[in-house]
C-alpha cells in the first residue's frame, strides 16, 4: 500500500460517510413528505400477488419491453446497476490494494464472466439510450419528441454517470489482467481481456480508476440526495415500491373502474358526508401518499406523452408534465407541509411570479414553471388555475384529458395518471363548480332527464318499433327463460346512429335464438359521463338507482345467472367494474364478446361474402380499459370476403376518438380535433368501412368522415359501422344491398349500402 493508495482510500472512506449521511437524510425527508398525504389502506396487500407483480415487472421488464429495443437496453442498464453493486464494494478494497478481490467469489470464474458481460452490456445499453435521446431530442422533433418538457440536463447527468461507471468496471478488470493481478481463467473475462492489450499494466492506475468509480458513484448519490425531485435518478429506488403498491393487487394497470372518492382513507358517504371530508384534490397535500410516491417516481421518459391523443393534437395536456408539475410543486411546498416553514396569512400577487410568456409553448403544459422554487407563493398557489392565478395545473390541461388510458398503459413504473387527473376534476366540479359550460348542460340533463341529451318521454322504447319481432321488456323480476338483460344505454336508445347498432344486435340475438329482454324506460344513464366529468355525487345517484333496479330484476338469480349484455363500452365498464363499489355484482359482457361466442358456437353463421376493405378502431374503454381486443376482430375474420387491415396505432397503442372523459359533451377548441386525426389515419388505408364497437366512437368517426367527404378528402362510399352491423349484413341473402362485389361497390346511387335491413341502413 503506497502513499497514493493511502490518500485515495482515505478520501473514498470520507466520501462514503458523507454520502450515507446525505442519503439517509434524503430518505427521511421523503418519508416525512409522504406522511403529509392522505392515507390509503388499500395498498398493503395481499403480499403474495404484489410481490409476484414486482418480480415480473422489474426482473422481466414487462412494461419497458413494450418498446423492445429501448426496453432491452434499459434491462441491461438495470441489471448492471444492481447486479454489479459488489464491484463498488470491491473498488474500495482496490483503492487501498490493487490486488484485492471480493472474498469467496472474487476469483470465481462465473462471477467474473457475469461482471465482464453485464459490464459491457451496460456500456452498450447506455450508449444506445444516449443515441436514442439525441435522435428523439426536441431540437430535432419539437413537440413530437417524447422528451419535450423533460429536464435534459438531469438526463445527461444520469447517462454520464452510468457510462462512466460501466467503463471504469471494464478498465479495472482489464488492468488486473494486464498486470497479472487475477487468477480467474481467461475465458471468464472475454471483454476486459481484449482491453488488457491496450491498457498499461499499472497497479497505481488501477487504484486511480477505482477511486474515480467511487467518486462518480457516491457523487451521484450525494447529488440526488440534494435534489429530491430528480425522478430520472430516484426511480431506481422508488420504482420498486411504486410497482408493489400499485392500485390493482393482481398486477393489472390502474384502468377500467375509477376508485371511489375517499377522504382520510375511507370512502365518502355522499348521503351523510363528514364535516372534514376532502372532496377530490384541491391542494397538493390532498393527494394520498401513493400519489406522492407516483410523482416522485416519474422518470420523465415521455412514453405517456408520446401516446397521449391530446398532446398529439396540439393540446396543452402532457401526462408527463402533469406528474412533473405536481412533483416539483410537492417538493417546493414541502417545508410548508412538514411544518418547517410557516406560510404568510395572505396570498401574494401571482402576476409578480409569472416567469413564462403566453407565447411560450410550455405556457399551458408546464404550470409549475410559472413559479419555481420554494417560496411563499408556492405555499399559496392553487393546484388548478390559470397563468394569472398562479395555478400548478392549467384548467385547459385538466379538461383536455379523454381518459383514454394510453398514459397508464405505457408507463413503465405504474404511475396512475388518470386517477390523479380525475381527482383534480372532482374538486373542481364538486367544490369550485368550475368546469366547461357545455358540460354543465350535460349534467343538468342527467339530473333532470336521466340522459345526456335531455330527451324525455318514451324515447328509450322507440327503437323497438322498427323491428319485425317483439322485444321483451322486464317488468319486476326477469323471466326465468330470459338469458340476457340487454342494456341498451342512452346512446343506443336515443342517438340515430347508435340505434342502428342496437337494432342490429337485437336482430342477431333473435336470429341466434338467444332469449333477451330490455328495461325500456326503466333504464337511466349508467353515470359514466358524470363520473368522468368529475361529478361523483351525480354518478352515485344514477348508479345507485340502476343498482336498485338491476338488483330487483335479478333478485331471484344467483351469481352466474345475472347476465347483462351492453353495446356501449362506457356502460359496460361502469356496470361491470364500477357498480360493485355500490353493491351491484353482475355478469356483464360486451356485445362483441357475446356475438363472437355465438359465431364460434355456430349459432350465427356468416354465409354471404362482403366485398369490403375494413379497418377496425379500438374503443378505449373496450380495449385498453377492459382488454377486449380479440372478439371484434374474430367476428370480422369470420365474415367471408372482408379484407381487414390494422391502423399503425391499434390495440394497446390505439388512438382515441376524442369522446372519452366526458369530452363527448365538451367543445374541442384547442389544436386539431382528435376524431379528425384518428379518421385521417384510417383513411390512409383507403378502406370502404371504418369499423368500431362503441356508439361514441361511431359518432366521432362518422362526423369526421362526413366532414372529409364534404371537403372531397374521402370517398363518398366510406362508412362507419359497428362490428355487429357488418356481421348482420353477412347474414343477409347473397345479392342483398350492402353485400355486392366489385370495385364500384357502394359508390352508385342505387347501392346505398345496407338498405336491406332497417338496422344497418346507410346513414
Automatic annotation (TrEMBL):
Residue ranges crossing the lipid bilayer per the database entry: 6-24, 67-89, 109-131, 156-175
Every 4Fe-4S ferredoxin-type domain range: 289-319, 389-421
Protein's UniProt keywords contain Transmembrane helix: yes
Pfam families reported for this sequence: CCG (PF02754), Fer4_9 (PF13187)
Entry annotated with the keyword 4Fe-4S: yes
Alphabetically ordered keywords of this record: 4Fe-4S, Iron, Iron-sulfur, Membrane, Metal-binding, Oxidoreductase, Transmembrane, Transmembrane helix
InterPro entries per record: 4Fe4S_Fe-S-bd, 4Fe4S_Fe_S_CS, Cys_rich_dom, HdrC_iron-sulfur_subunit, Helical_ferredxn, NarG-like_sf
An example Gene Ontology molecular-function term: oxidoreductase activity
Protein name per the record: Fe-S oxidoreductase
Species annotation: Modestobacter caceresii
